[in-house]
Amino acid sequence: MSIDVLGPLVGRQSQGPTASAAIDEARRQLEICNACRYCEGYCSVFPAMTLHRAFDDGEVTQLANLCHNCRGCYYACQYTEPHEFDLNLPRALAEVRVESWERFIWPNGLAALFQRSGMALAGALFGAIAFMLALAYGLRPESGEGFYAVISHTVMATLFTVASILPLIVIGIGVWSYWRAVGGERVKLKHLHDALIDAGRLKNLSGGAADGCNYEKEDRYTMARRWSHQAVMWGFLMCFAATVSGTVLHYGFGMEAPYGPFSLPKLFGVPGGILMTIGGVGLIALKLRAEKSLGAPAVWGGEMAFVVLLTATALTGLALYWATGTGAVRPLLIVHLGTVLALYLTLPYTKMVHIPFRLAALVRDAQTKRA
């Protein structure tokens, strides 16, 4: 595509008075990309982009949350710096994506704080561990076995039920606000099916190339990021299944923890913790090697702190499992529960929220494909 054709698109103005600078810049770049279409065979962003001739704020936000930041389009682009168009679509969409989470998740100030500050997450972690320590020593149970000799089952169940339900409510309201902003329609089963298949396969992390994406380096195509994400995702789901199975055993069959090595909670939880740890370490290593300027640099510290917190949750859980029956159970249980509590309470305000937002974006994308 010649510069003469693309030239008039440079500096296009916002289509709405409420647009932010990030949305304006992403719109400018999207319009240039839409005219060029060299990257049309890449991730889902580009086929979705071609359905529009202009992009309102909601469409820019939808495309931003559809983007997986694989960065293949940047390395393939002929209009990046030092070209006068100065395109960096991965960064432009990443900044809109983060801004959308901060805008739709209440309260906005907390979202901005935890997204942009690793120290804030560290403070939440230490505060949660201190709280669990005070709880363990201030409300010591008179009787109990295993973990419940440190903190009673009633206290533990009540605390974590509240700590898990409230963040889910906040996230649900935020996703609903996002859905309205991007023009989402009534969800049909086939839309949800398509989105879940896409999310489960993480196909967009292939970057449009059979050998993977070049997230780390221009000439280095690997599946490392896709595999690390899959390990974390499936590991997290297995740990969730372990929690659910433990709850069913406790309340449905009167079988209390600790459970044996061949029980459902252990058969789900141990492999799940191992997968989460391996995937988390992989993501940390990838993030350290990747170019910061191709993401949202302002939130790099917060994103890294979140991945560390997620990995620490799995790692402390595994350590607690191996320490069963020893004197290390009490301190490890306090540290693990504090880590889990910090993870739960900050869920709506960390990068973890990209999961429901991206799933909503995939559902919306499935709607437009089937329209």
TrEMBL record:
<feature type="transmembrane region" description="Helical">
    <location>
        <begin position="159"/>
        <end position="179"/>
    </location>
</feature>
<feature type="transmembrane region" description="Helical">
    <location>
        <begin position="268"/>
        <end position="286"/>
    </location>
</feature>
<keyword id="KW-0812">Transmembrane</keyword>
<keyword id="KW-0472">Membrane</keyword>
<feature type="transmembrane region" description="Helical">
    <location>
        <begin position="231"/>
        <end position="253"/>
    </location>
</feature>
<protein>
    <submittedName>
        <fullName>Tricarballylate utilization protein B</fullName>
    </submittedName>
</protein>
<feature type="transmembrane region" description="Helical">
    <location>
        <begin position="298"/>
        <end position="322"/>
    </location>
</feature>
<dbReference type="InterPro" id="IPR012830">
    <property type="entry name" value="Citrate_utilization_prot_B"/>
</dbReference>
<dbReference type="InterPro" id="IPR036197">
    <property type="entry name" value="NarG-like_sf"/>
</dbReference>
<feature type="transmembrane region" description="Helical">
    <location>
        <begin position="119"/>
        <end position="139"/>
    </location>
</feature>
<keyword id="KW-1133">Transmembrane helix</keyword>
<feature type="transmembrane region" description="Helical">
    <location>
        <begin position="328"/>
        <end position="347"/>
    </location>
</feature>
